[in-house]
Structure formats: C-alpha cells, structure tokens
Amino acid sequence: MKICRSVLAAGAIVLGTLGAISVNAQSPTSTTEDAGEERLRRVLGAVAAQPLNAAPFVERRTSVLFATPQESRGTLSYRPPGTVEKRTTSPIRETLSMTADAVTIDSGTGAPPTVVKVDASQGQLASYVSGLRAILSGDDRLLRQVFDTRLTGSFDNWSLQLLPKGPLPRRGIRKIVVSGAGAHLRQIETTEINGDVLDMAITTR
Length: 205
Fold this sequence. Notes:
Mean pLDDT: 82
Helix content: 10-25%
Largest sheet: 11 strands, antiparallel
CATH architecture: Clam
CATH class: Mainly Beta
Number of helices: 4
Order of helices and strands: HHEEEEEEHHEEEEE
Shape: globular
CATH topology: outer membrane lipoprotein receptor (LolB), chain A
Low-confidence stretches: 1-29
Distance between the termini: 33 Å
C-alpha cells in the first residue's frame, strides 16, 4: 500500500430493447455514448500530442493522520511509448518510474532501486499505473478497460472522473479525478478508500 500511495484515479453503457424498431436504428443511449467516447478521444488525443517533459508539480496529501496537509514537489514526465517518471525533489529526493510491467523507486542514495512488478496481485497499483499511462499516451480503450469514465465540462475546461472497475477492496483507490484545459493537464486528485486525498497540481507550458 505504501507503493500505491507513492504512485502517486462513470457509469456503464445501458442498452435498451428496440421492440418493433428496425435493428439498424440507433438508440438515443448509444448515440449519447458514442458522443461521450468521441469527446474522450479528443481530449486524450490532445493531451498525448503535448507530452509532459519535466512538468513541475506540487502534491498535497490530506489525511486524518496529519494535522496539516503533507506537501511534496518535483517534476512529472512521460516518455513514449509508455514510461511515466515522477521525480520528487522536496522534502526528499526520489525518482519513481512506471511502465506497463513494473514500478521502480530510486531513493538516490546509491542503494539498489526497489522494483515492484505490476500484475494481478497489485490490483489497485496496476489500475493506477494503467490509468495514468493511458491518459498520457491518449489510449482511451485501455482507460475504459480499467475504469468507468465520466468526462464533463468543455474542451477548454474539462474534468475526467475515473472509478476503478470491479468490487472495491478494503484498501486502495476509490476514485481519481483528472482535470485540464485543452491539451494541458492541470490536476490529478486521487481519493483513497480510507479517506486520504492526494492532490497533484501540474504546471504545463
């Protein structure tokens, strides 16, 4: 769970019966879903076209365990075809690299990096890593495989809510809300099942 915290995020398609209507006719529900998927593809495509390159971030964790939010700073980068790098510079120095197969944490002390395999045994971590990689690479299909998605707002001011598919575990991620303006990410807010909130504000050019 410590690793999941360091890595640091709705609704099903409803098909109605068509009755006597021709099977070639398209229901209003499917039309709405198609429009929503097209909007999601447009936003993710724009984000992927402006890959992050050492974008500064400020991250705050709010928890009942702390009297005040715990703050960290650093940079966030994405290297195609699928590597996310979170480099923390304050209050500690740490580099966290995420790929489809593993999360690697380098403390910068000269000690061997910690490597955690991303597989079925790391369900919530795997969901988070897959979701973040899908957003930054513009892969809407991968995103919808892992999360129920709900995109609101306009292209210039959008918000994407991600709810992990499947039953919620006793520990892990409850939801992730990603927001941005056009091609630029602005915020990633992760709410954990225990009530902790991890809020990352990103500065992009």
